[in-house]
Amino acid sequence: MALRAALRIKSALPGLLSQLSSSSSHGRVCASSVFVSQQRKNSTTPKIAVDFDQSTGVAVMRMKSPPVNSLSLDFLTEFCISVEKLEMDKSCRGLIITSSLPNVFSAGLDIMEMYGKSPEHCGEFWKAVQEMWLKLYNSNMVTIAAINGSSPAGGCLMSITCDYRIMVDNPRYRIGLNETQLGIVAPFWFKDTMSNTVGHRTTEMALALGLLYNPAEALKVGLVDQIVPEDKLMTTAEQTMAKWLAIPDHARQITKSMMRKPTLDKLVSKREADIQNFVGFITKDSIQKYLRGYLEMLKKRKA
Amino acid sequence: MALRAALRIKSALPGLLSQLSSSSSHGRVCASSVFVSQQRKNSTTPKIAVDFDQSTGVAVMRMKSPPVNSLSLDFLTEFCISVEKLEMDKSCRGLIITSSLPNVFSAGLDIMEMYGKSPEHCGEFWKAVQEMWLKLYNSNMVTIAAINGSSPAGGCLMSITCDYRIMVDNPRYRIGLNETQLGIVAPFWFKDTMSNTVGHRTTEMALALGLLYNPAEALKVGLVDQIVPEDKLMTTAEQTMAKWLAIPDHARQITKSMMRKPTLDKLVSKREADIQNFVGFITKDSIQKYLRGYLEMLKKRKA
Amino acid sequence: MALRAALRIKSALPGLLSQLSSSSSHGRVCASSVFVSQQRKNSTTPKIAVDFDQSTGVAVMRMKSPPVNSLSLDFLTEFCISVEKLEMDKSCRGLIITSSLPNVFSAGLDIMEMYGKSPEHCGEFWKAVQEMWLKLYNSNMVTIAAINGSSPAGGCLMSITCDYRIMVDNPRYRIGLNETQLGIVAPFWFKDTMSNTVGHRTTEMALALGLLYNPAEALKVGLVDQIVPEDKLMTTAEQTMAKWLAIPDHARQITKSMMRKPTLDKLVSKREADIQNFVGFITKDSIQKYLRGYLEMLKKRKA
């Protein structure tokens, strides 16, 4: 399990490997994460902390699933339940999503949920990924991603479902849909969300090459809306939230729905086919072999 | 009526309120507009002046409906008739749209046509708004907006239907689809036109927040194509027009139609449903209450 | 034939005329091209040279059909056969397209294939143009355009079907879909490809005005991805190719197909109608008259 936890960190952050190994602070994260992960196995420690301020109508969700906020099935389930609860609370008008862990926002989908697992498990996992996207992209709340660390793959997806993205201006952080670098593929709704954010051409190149952007680059292509020093992140998020909440909810919500409905409808109408497609792809021998080779390479690097 | 006229200025320019109240020149516009508006009530003074130069094939339409070129039902009817006439005149190949009033291009849809009015009236009004859009976005002429003042909401819509936008570089002027700031919502064809101009992401944020851009900002996001000093506006428009008219009409027109037909077809096929949708929305008690609250706030501010 | 060859250079490069006539080096190209063209008539000299490096998996196609790599029916047929062969060779993973001629990448569609020709001939020609686009836009290989000269109209189309575009930074070179300047019209699939590259608004204006961009302008609007000095072109193309080939083929190919399939499907489903539309348009008396007037103007200029 220690190995798996360590692998998970790295397997989720392929583009960041060189940084991870050359950075002593990141090294510490890796080491400690092993213990945390072992602990976690038998605990019911929540993976997400939610603070809801009734006076402002704004909730802050802090992801705190060491080592790297991987989007495991458990994590996604807890995440969706949390969002759902806030969504149903009429007094909650805004949601800020951030991380409690150092240097990482979310490392994205947990590869261990797709490697060596049954088709049924893979299908269940994928349904949970869809659910997260549907909940966030369709949220009636104002959603702001306060990205205080690297955010590859599923972490990037989570960010681009939000109404606004603020990233800490640390040149070591990365964000992007880097699936192809792992030999896997972002599905059409990841692609649509990205394309709605940065346009067709940037998306085409970013997805083909599995590009990971540093904050300045991400700002330039429009993948994030603003970059700020670490200590200004939450105040900027709150100020931005106040600006969005100054708009009457009904007008903002109708507008948001108008902008996003065609993209949402596409997945809703093809949801089962998308699951089948994912399961068929990920359980292929060739893809599993690819993932295994990748994991073994990481194991060797670690050794 | 004096009150309504004064309200109309401000209700049409919510984002500009602070400027209006702090600017003595704008103040003068407000004051004089009351008289003009009273005069207008019983007059048949045309709201638009058209100069067509046979030698160049270019017509200039000057909107001159004080105080702020609000798009009332009367205004829209006259506007559509004017465009229609030019469209049918084969010798007219280009149209420049500008304002005769100081500091304002057009303040957009006249709120008084939607407040306290019957569903029938609201429906008739909305049909006229659709008509203006259809005529301009589908025009065979080269259309250039020479934006010599603020241009919120419907004024912005009018601008983005044109082939090219030149705005006077006065930092007090604003342009944008700011409907949500008023508690109302830009319909899908406003959104489509905006999205065709500045892309999906800029549109999503601009519409959600009801953003009004100053000329430099509008240029940066692509909402206008060029900004010029006030005294260069018309010569720039004419020079630009000459460049567009150098292209054979048939080739330019087929190209324009190819670019815009899908967007036009969408409204044409849903025109009646769009009217019903608007009428259902705007006549809701909650929306009328919203507009009333807004108008009362303006009245108090004025007092 | 000498005249026709000379005309072909100029008719294919209308936007570059002033440069052609004021540039002695271009003048030499024109003069020599007449002889080359006469030679070519009875020769079976290939119009394209292909070098495939088994060790890298990368093929380089050099267009070498003087005077200006016009896309004639013969050229397109040879081009499509060459691409097809590489596509079927599993060991070929990447394709770099460039020109062997000085100052020109490709001058685009050969006007002489559309002027004074039978509807049958025009239809056959257009089918070949479609075929080139379908083969390139749908290629499983990584395709890079190494644009070492002007690339108007069909030459631009060829470039924007590629995965990446590098252009030599020579301010005399031009690239763009300038069809309207000739009185003809880029069809919907040219438009779609352009729009996928530079977005809706830039495409609308570029096509309406038949804009030709110099390398710096093309970079700015995103029509090319990179500009480099002439002597760095091929090494940059090779380094870029290596970066693209570092991504697992299957993941990159699925991603590319996902991005491009809707655009490809549109032409595939309307292919015959598109041919009929082109033939109906190009064989119109008014359009032929237009082309004739244009060719005669060029003849006079030359005299």
What is the assembly state of the chains in this entry?
homotrimer
Mean pLDDT, all residues of chain A: 88
Which percent band covers the strand fraction of chain A? 5-15%
Q: Which word captures the global form of chain A? A: globular
Summarize the largest interface: chains and residue counts.
A-B, 22 and 22 residues
Distance between the termini of chain A: 16 Å
**Low-confidence segments of chain A:** 1-42
Main sheet attributes: strand count, strand direction, barrel closure of chain A: 6 strands, mixed
Helical percentage of chain A: 55-70%
Structural class assignment of chain A: alpha/beta
Physical arrangement of strands within the biggest beta sheet of chain A: 1-2-4-6-8-10
Q: Count up the helices of chain A.
A: 13
Characterization of this structure:
The structure is a homotrimer of 303-residue chains. With 303 residues, chain A is α/β, with parallel strands linked by helices. Chain A has helices spanning 2-11, 17-22, 24-41, 73-88, 119-137, 154-160, 188-198, 200-209, 215-221, 233-245, 249-269, 271-282, 285-302, and strands at 48-53, 58-63, 70-71, 94-99, 108-109, 142-147, 151-152, 164-168, 175-176, 226-228. In chain A, the strands form three sheets. Chain A has a six-stranded mixed beta sheet, sandwiched between helices. A two-stranded parallel ribbon of chain A has the order 3-5. In chain A, strands 7-9 form a two-stranded parallel sheet. In chain A, helix 1 crosses helix 13 (285-302). The model of chain A is unreliable at 1-42 (pLDDT under 50). Chains in contact: A-B, A-C, B-C. Chain A binds chain B through residues 163-164, 195-199, 222, 225, 243-244, 247-248, 250-252, 254-256, 258-260, and chain B through 179-186, 188, 191, 199-201, 203-205, 207-210, 286, 290.
